[in-house]
Amino acid sequence: MSFDPEKVALEFPILTRKVHGKRLVYLDSAASSQKPEAVIDAVSNYYRTSHANVHRGVHTLSEEATALYEAARESVRGFLNAAAAREIVFVRGTTEAINLVAQAYARPRLGPGDEVLISELEHHSNLVPWQMVCEQTGATLVVAPIDARGDIIVEEYARRVTERTRLVALAHVSNALGTLNPIRELARIAKRAGAVVVVDGAQGVPHLPVDVRALGCDFYAFSGHKMYAPTGIGALWGRLELLDAMEPWQGGGSMIKNVTFAKTEYARAPERFEAGTPDIAGAVGLHAAIEWLRALDLDAVHRHESDLLAYASARLAEIPTVRLIGTARERAGVVSFVVGDVHAHDVGTILDGEGVAVRAGHHCAQPVMERFDVPATARASFAVHNTRADVDRLAAGVRRVLEIFG
Amino acid sequence: MSDLRDLYQEVILDHTKRPRNFGPLGSATHRATGRNPLCGDQLVLMLDIKDDVVRDAHFAGKGCAISTASASLLTEAVKGKTTAEAHGLFELFHAAVTAPSEAVLDLDALGKLAALAGVREFPMRVKCASLAWHTLEAALAGASTPVSTE
Q1: Is A349 in contact with B38 (Cβ distance < 8 A)?
Q2: Active site residue A364
Q3: Over 90: is that where the pLDDT of A236 sits?
Q4: Of residues B37 and A80, which shows the higher confidence score?
Q5: What pLDDT score does B145 carry?
Q6: Residue A274: pLDDT over 80
Q7: Do residues A339 and A230 share a domain?
Q8: Do residues A190 and A312 both lie within one domain?
């Protein structure tokens, strides 16, 4: 199947707008992707025709909404190649998913002497929840270092996996460096020691076909809004025997089987972890995004984005004083860079003036910035709708930075 | 957005590339730290105050062009001022960078600081320009905890 990014771009209404009088070049999809018409329409149609609360009423709309919500769960199952739809818990996003695992799985099971292992390239959302649970339980947080290119040093990682390691939490793809971690290999090492493996897939699912069973992990978390779905919806996949063994996280409606003042019996997974009215419209939008993305062919998407990444790296590297931050062996989705000693926020402001949207800052990964001894970087991230012409606009904008600060 | 040259004026670029009064100040009697957690920028402002007059002012730290230039211009502006006058400058500056873009500013009163007034057209960057000034307020007040723009 042929893949034409320019044709795909036409499906994103927002890309027709101008910023500061110039055609918008959106290179900030790693922060949040734009939405294709198919997703916007699915959400809109849901509200126009089928909205009601789920799992409650016996009326027609409630049945329709419930069917749509559960169909979305099934689509996530297929998207991740999970064994059962019951293994899919809807959450607000990756952050909530990781906090759920930290509090409902890890907290009751950890104690002094136990270790949680993460890597140096983690987003704050795959670091702070573990720090919190370590403080709550007396367990120790251990960090596996990365090398100068931004790759996890596998031998150093393996050395830190011991019989004390109860849980390993790793990004599939680094949001700050673009590093594509060898999850299968890292998970195998962790499993040998009996540790449970949690993967932060926020930057994985938009760019790669994901098969959670082939990855060999136990939990996989992702956000919808970075993969063309609405904000406010995401999913946690967990192996059923783990989910079934976990106590609820939040109490409320929907997560119960029977309630008396004396005792409450909880529903089984996934409802057990979905207290309160969920983001039904978000789930419908996520379903639409998954179908839309799968129709594009994820392998073709991956090839296209890899080409853009290589092209952008080359175009940026040839500009004087530009330094790429993160040159891992395998990368996906993002290129981080600094321009001489110009602060990333100044780079971001000047690029914005040229109609080019990038992220500037520490990317919620302050330890990564420290590792590379920069306060912040500018980051361009790619989506299905980006083209080489977009990269050329980026490169021209960076040259403009040099003109101003020259 | 107005022209980028309104933001990155010559005065600002000059103070960014060659910050004045940069580095430690041995005679400092007052100091404060300012942080912008959004971008990780951090600066330390040191004042030598005697008989209620700011005799010297230095700053150190890392930041973007706007925050560095603002801190550099600040150290020049407050030197020789009484603490009340320095506080008055803060108010003048703060009013200028948060004024609506159609408001007419008293550029004469701002003096060289007028170069920073262009930041009001860039709402995301007002915090960068303000960091040093909030730190000044903290230093004048003898605050011991770091101030934050958040």
Answers
A1: no
A2: yes
A3: yes
A4: A80
A5: 64
A6: yes
A7: no
A8: no
Q: Which residue has the higher pLDDT, B2 or A390?
A: A390
8 Å CB contact of A346 and B62: no
| Domain encompassing residue A133 | 40-294
Q: Is the pLDDT of residue A241 over 70?
A: yes
Residues 80-139 of B with CB under 8 A from A: 122, 124-125, 128
Judged on CB neighbours under 10 Å (0-12, 13-18, 19+), B18 is: exposed
Half-sphere exposure of B47 (CA within 13 A, CB side): 33
CATH of the domain at A171: 3.40.640.10
Tokens coding A3: 């893949």
Q: Mean pLDDT score of chain A, rounded to an integer? A: 95
> Omega into A270 within 30° of 0, i.e. cis?
yes
User: In the prediction, which pLDDT does B1 show?
Assistant: 46
pLDDT-derived band at B144 (thresholds 50, 70, 90) equals low
DSSP E strands in A112-206: the ranges are 115-119, 140-144, 165-171, 196-200
Q: Provide φ and ψ at A201, rounded to 5°.
A: -100, 15
Task: Compute the nearest-CA separation of B53 from chain A (Å).
Answer: 34
Instruction: Name which of B94, B89, B93, B116 is nearest B10 in CA terms.
Output: B116
pLDDT digits (tens, 9 = 90+) for A61-120: 999 999 999 999 999 999 999 999 999 999 999 999 999 999 999 999 999 999 999 999
* Structural domain count, chain A: 2
Q: Is 0.80 topped by the overall pTM?
A: yes
| Residue A84 shares a structural domain with residue A123 | yes
Of B39, B40, B48, which is closest to residue B21 (Cα–Cα)?
Answer: B48
Q: Do B39 and A345 touch (CB under 8 A)?
A: yes
> Is position A225 within any domain?
yes
Between chain A and chain B, how many beta carbons pairs sit less than 8 Å apart? 51
The whole-angstrom separation of Cα A349 and Cα B3 is: 11
A380 strand-pairing partners: A335
Domain termination residue (choose one: A243, A277, A294) = A294
Of all helices (H) and strands (E), which one includes residue A337?
Answer: strand A334-339
Of A343, A373, A403, which to mutate for an interface test with B (greatest number of B Cβ within 10 Å)?
A: A343
Provide CB contacts within 8 A for A189, sequence distance 6+.
Answer: A154, A157, A158, A161
Query: In this predicted model, what pLDDT tens digit does every residue of B107-126 receive, in sequence order?
Result: 888 888 999 988 988 888 89
Q: Looking at the structure, tell me whether residues A289 and A396 fall in a common domain.
A: no
Optimal mutation site among A339, A349, A350, A368, interface B, most CBs of chain B within 10 A: A349
- Pick from B40, B62, B65: which is nearest to A346 by CB? B65
Give the pLDDT confidence of A243-273 residue by residue, as tens digits.
999 999 999 888 888 888 888 889 999 999 9
Q: Which residue in the list A158, A364, A396, A402 is annotated as catalytic? A: A364
User: Which residue of chain B has the CA closest to A362?
Assistant: B39
Q: Name the class of domain B4-141.
A: alpha beta
Looking only at Cα atoms, what is the longest distance across chain B? 45
A148 with A167, same domain: the answer is: yes
Half-sphere exposure of A105 (CA within 13 A, CB side): 30
Contact yes or no for B106/B5 (Cβ under 8 A): no
Which pLDDT value is given to residue B7?
87
